[in-house]
Amino acid sequence: MIRFLPTKGKILDLGCGEGRNSLYLAKQGFDVTAIDISKAAIERLEETSKKIGVKVHTNLQDISSLDFGLDWDAIISNTALHLLRSENQNNVIAHMKFSTKKAGINLITIFTKDDIGYKEFPELYFVNLEELKNLYFDWNILVAKMFTINETHGGPHSHHIAVLIAQKTNN
């Protein structure tokens, strides 16, 4: 992921959880703002950032009702969008696209319709890769792929994930 990002700039991390990506990017010198709906996750992120001596701006908020602001060099969402109701996801992605600078990057990882959770939670937003690519038809798609990871939490299972990295065109 890092090779597609500019060498410096502002990054918005949507659904950051405890901030693994936010902390890494802040260590690399990026100006990072991390958003999550979980108060406990944001508090842990703030504690960790103080402990390791990096600055991460945090915001406790639901990403589906967030005003993203403008001029982000990159906006990332790592395994968070599938937790939204499907009617909210298009709005969030539209805001991601609108709020990104020209030549900026959007990076999305999201569970696919092949994932075990799709049958259990059909009201949430699971995609296939083509759907995700179609949402970025007007951007330069740098990476579009699917992969599977094996997990053991709650018993052995696999997650099926789509990854999209796209660059905003100058139009």
Question: How is this fold's topology laid out?
Answer:
Blueprint: E1 10-14, H1 20-27, E2 31-36, H2 39-52, E3 56-60, E4 72-78, H3 86-99, E5 100-111, H4 116-120, H5 129-135, E6 140-151, E7 157-167
* Total DSSP helices: 5
The number of strands is: 7
* Sheet having the most strands: 7 strands, mixed
| Computed structural class | alpha/beta
How far is it from the N-terminal to the C-terminal residue, by CA? 24 Å
Oligomer: single chain
Which strand order does the major sheet show? Answer: 3-2-1-4-5-7-6
Q: Looking at the structure, what is the overall shape?
A: globular
Secondary-structure element series: EHEHEEHEHHEE
| Low-pLDDT regions | none
- Which whole number gives the mean pLDDT? 89
Helix content: 25-40%
β content, as a range? Answer: 25-35%
Radius of gyration computed on alpha carbons: 16 Å
Notable characteristics:
171 residues, alpha/beta, 7-stranded mixed beta sheet, 5 helices, globular
Protein model, in words:
With 171 residues, this protein is α/β, with parallel strands linked by helices. It has 5 helices and 7 strands, in the order E-H-E-H-E-E-H-E-H-H-E-E. It has helices spanning 20-27, 39-52, 86-99, 116-120, 129-135; strands at residues 10-14, 31-36, 56-60, 72-78, 100-111, 140-151, 157-167. Strand 4, helix 3 (86-99) and strand 5 (100-111) form a beta-alpha-beta unit. The two termini are 24 Å apart.
